[in-house]
Design goal:
Order of helices and strands: HHHHHHHHH
Number of helices: 9
CATH superfamily: PhyR, sigma-like (SL) domain
Largest sheet: none
Distance between the termini: 38 Å
Oligomer: single chain
Shape: globular
Structural class: mainly alpha
Helix content: over 70%
Number of domains: 1
Length: 176
């Protein structure tokens, strides 16, 4: 288990879940928000992520060599995919909805906002890669565990996502 838990200590499932929520709750919520572009859906998806983790905890403890963070992020990404398959996303113009997001709690520059919107406009598989690598600071191996891909495939997908972002920035004349 990770640093949130005492090494060697035998924790109850409840204690383990609480530790995971303290350690990774914010990261899971941010991941869900970037995947779904809706704060309320992201909160629901984050809660569902931890419910699913709770239900699969014994299986994780017995079988998984994956890190806790990678395992939880995989559950979060899959949960968000399930949400996106729902009826709401079939009827909503997501790029139009992104523009309607409320202003951030913290002031961000126009460039940072444009970068965020550029990432949100990427296809789902590229947006996920950018999110996990730059936002969650995961390694290629961890990203592979999350997405069920080989590290070489993750690296290839990351390069394609970065190229798509560069094209978007060049199209605006940014030198980011």
């Amino acid at each position: 288990m990770n640093g949130a838990l005492v090494p060697g200590a035998v924790l109850t499932p409840e204690e383990t879940l609480e530790a995971w929520m303290r350690e990774y709750g914010s990261a899971v919520l941010r991941t869900c928000f970037v995947c779904l572009a809706d704060a309320h859906l992201a909160q629901d998806a984050a809660q569902d992520t931890f419910i699913k983790a709770w239900r699969a905890m014994d299986k994780f403890r017995k079988q998984s060599p994956a890190s806790e963070k990678a395992w939880l992020m995989r559950i979060a990404v899959n949960t968000c995919r399930d949400y996106r398959r729902g009826m709401w996303f079939r009827k909503v113009d997501l790029p139009g909805e992104i523009e309607k997001l409320p202003p951030p709690a913290l002031q961000v520059s126009d460039g940072e906002r444009e970068t965020f919107l550029d990432v949100m406009r990427l296809p789902d598989k590229h947006r996920q890669i950018i999110l996990l690598y730059y936002y969650q600071q995961m390694t290629l191996r961890e990203m592979g565990e999350v997405l069920g891909l080989k590290p070489s495939s993750v690296h290839h997908r990351l390069k394609k996502a970065e190229a798509a972002l560069r094209r978007a920035w060049e199209g605006r004349g940014d030198d980011e």
